[in-house]
Specification:
Elements (H helix, E strand, L loop, with lengths): L10 E6 L9 H17 L4 E4 L13 H10 L5 E8 L5 H14 L4 E6 L6 H7 L10 H12 L20 E5 L3 H9 L3 E4 L7 H11 L11 E9 L3 H7 L1 H12 L18 H10 L4 E3 L1 H15 L3 E5 L5 H15 L3
Parallel strand pairs: 1-2, 1-9, 2-3, 3-4, 4-5, 5-6, 6-7, 7-8, 7-9
Length: 337
């Protein structure tokens, strides 16, 4: 396929989970996260999002707002935000206060991505909520509360979120199924789909969001963001080799094991069973991996199908310099689409 007039050139951003590479501790992972953000800023990536996870020993992203503040302090212009705040774990008032404070310190650089899942296992979710039952069904009303807290004086109630009042921090709805696509469309908010680990409903979610979209004060037309695993290397052989780190992470997820980011291996089939391979690959089915020519073709095909307004790239390359190089190559490719 060649580029056509119908192929939209997407904005380019990145997601990071502050993962620990084998032999690293949390401080090492956070330092690597900041170096990556600085590198992406030098490449003029639009935004750098940090995901919220809990009770995962090899992810250092539990206190996401602190990592966002730290990353903002170590960068100059790239937008930094949550990919996302798992809203059932937090009160909207506290979220508004925290992100209003970040916006006050770093004006026009803060994003607030919102998810309805807990980002952890049920027992840990209960601990985060101090024993309360699942409250994910309150997600729509929690978003309405946040919109009010960030709104002007005319929409406030007795409880106000200082210093969030009037700051209008941009909200993004995150999803890995179709439920949030309906909500994002009805609310007229940007929608980010998690194809990097839950690609099965991507096609349906994209269609639902665009069909359900209603213009709002925040957005006049749909804004579709897709997060995907994208790895570029100097050769196909190297790309496939480096991608075995990602494959090991998903293999571990299937097995309920946590080892962090492991070095690449020459043959994954020597490690996983056929059943484990099938389960892991189902979560990576939209991954884009290869050299520059191959990845460009894959991205053209992807964009021809989805016409994403923004791609949020994530990759798990064990060698930090090769990871940075992968993002550099991706930026070069996007500039030619």
């Amino acid at each position: 396929m060649t580029k056509t007039a119908m192929t939209k050139t997407p904005k380019l951003s990145a997601l990071n989970l502050a993962p620990m590479r084998q032999g690293q501790n949390a401080k090492d992972a956070i330092d690597a996260m900041v170096r990556l953000a600085q590198h992406l800023e030098s490449l003029d990536f639009t935004r750098f999002w940090i995901a919220e996870h809990h009770n995962m020993p090899h992810l250092a992203s539990s206190a996401t707002q602190i990592l966002i503040a730290h990353t903002l302090s170590q960068t100059q212009k790239i937008r930094v935000g949550s990919g996302g705040v798992m809203l059932p774990n937090h009160s909207p008032l506290q979220v508004a206060e925290q992100y209003g404070t970040l916006e006050t310190l770093y004006p026009n650089r803060v994003d607030l991505g919102l998810g309805r899942a807990p980002g952890t296992d049920p027992i840990t979710a209960m601990a985060l909520r101090r024993g309360r039952a699942d409250i994910s069904d309150q997600f729509p009303s929690d978003i309405a509360d946040l919109q009010r807290y960030f709104g002007d004086e005319s929409v406030q109630g007795r409880v106000k979120a200082y210093p969030a009042l009037g700051l209008s921090v941009p909200l993004y709805i995150l999803g890995s199924s179709t439920e949030s696509a309906y909500l994002a469309g009805r609310l007229g908010l940007p929608y980010a789909f998690a194809a990097h680990f839950a690609p099965r409903m991507l096609d349906m979610a994209v269609d639902i969001y665009r069909n359900e979209f209603k213009p709002s004060d925040a957005l006049h037309a749909p804004y579709m963001m897709i997060c995907n695993n994208i790895l570029v290397a100097d050769s196909e052989t190297e790309a496939k080799f480096l991608a075995t780190t990602q494959q090991q992470l998903f293999w571990d997820l299937v097995r309920g094991v946590s080892r962090g980011m492991c070095p690449p291996v020459p043959d994954m089939d020597a490690l996983w069973s056929p059943q484990e391979k099938m389960a892991a690959q189902s979560m990576m089915s939209t991954s884009i991996i290869g050299d520059k020519d191959s990845v460009k073709q894959q991205l053209l095909d992807f964009q021809q199908k989805y016409q994403a307004d923004e791609l949020i790239a994530i990759n798990y390359v064990f060698d930090e310099q090769k990871q940075h190089h992968s993002y550099s190559l991706l930026k070069q490719i996007i500039e030619t689409i």
